[in-house]
Amino acid sequence: MSQDLVVQTRNLTKVYRDFWGRKKKIALNALDFDIRRGEIFGLLGPNGSGKTTTIKLLLGLLFPTSGEATVFGEPAGDVKKNEKIGYLPEESYLYRFLNAEETLDFYGRLFEIPPDVRRRRAGELIEMVGLEKDKKRILREYSKGMRQRIGLAQALINDPELVILDEPTSGLDPLGTRWMKDLILDLKKRGKTVLMCSHRLDDVQDVCERIAILYNGDLQTLGNVSTLLEDAARVEVRATDLRLTDEIRRDLEQVIAKHGGKLETVGHPTTTLEDLFLRIVEESKNRPGRRYTGSEGGGKF
């Protein structure tokens, strides 16, 4: 296995059987894909497509019916390789009567991290995930979003090389979602490899370089996000310092028609709802007391 490959699967198949050994469900069918060192890889698919089964196979929690999976060049069933992995499940199963510091100390002990390193790393992670003010509260009092944050800190306590995130933005508000995506991008800058599963396609589009889409256990597509999203049959033109007029529209139609094309739409670009929401919140922080006045033209304050 090349040192540039962190995860590799070949003909990876998982069949669930009933009590009598009869085939009940093909959860994963001959899956082939690679994850390269230092990339953010997205694993997509509807419920029941095989995403969770794939993660469990990579972690060694399940054994394949056929085929193989390797992580860091070692068989996925070898639990020693999990020392290099951080895992955030969709629902974090943490002890509700421990606080944030105690939780990270507990998981640091499982990795046999020295006490002084545990304390230092726990403090850094609590600050990173924005729980400094709530580090003494027991987890039972945490909201779902706060539990997601401490769950991420738990996944990073061993300073892993591979981080597996299952629905990392689940339970987060738009501000928390933006924070999570920025943190995932920061993990890449630190040299981490990230495998991310999510139902929120906009999140995947924002952070992932390559994706694999599963459906009913079968790999449907695999490739770079930019290439897969590109519509090669259309051309997009953008200009600045220009207001759209009928004359401009006619000129564009003539130029495009000259080259055998047809003008479909022309207009001013729009932002995303997420960017609008974040901008309004930030402006509201900078200008306390601002209120919506009911003016037309895009929500004036």
From TrEMBL:
Q: A Gene Ontology MF term for this entry?
A: ATP binding
Sorted UniProt keywords: ATP-binding, Nucleotide-binding, Transport
Which SMART domains does UniProt cross-reference here? AAA
Q: Which PROSITE patterns match?
A: ABC_TRANSPORTER_1 (PS00211), ABC_TRANSPORTER_2 (PS50893)
The record places domain ABC transporter at 7-241
What InterPro entries does the record point to? Answer: AAA+_ATPase (IPR003593), ABC_transporter-like_ATP-bd (IPR003439), ABC_transporter-like_CS (IPR017871), ABC_Transporter_VariousFunc (IPR051782), P-loop_NTPase (IPR027417)
Q: What is this protein called?
A: ABC transporter ATP-binding protein
Naturally occurring in which organism (per UniProt): Telmatocola sphagniphila
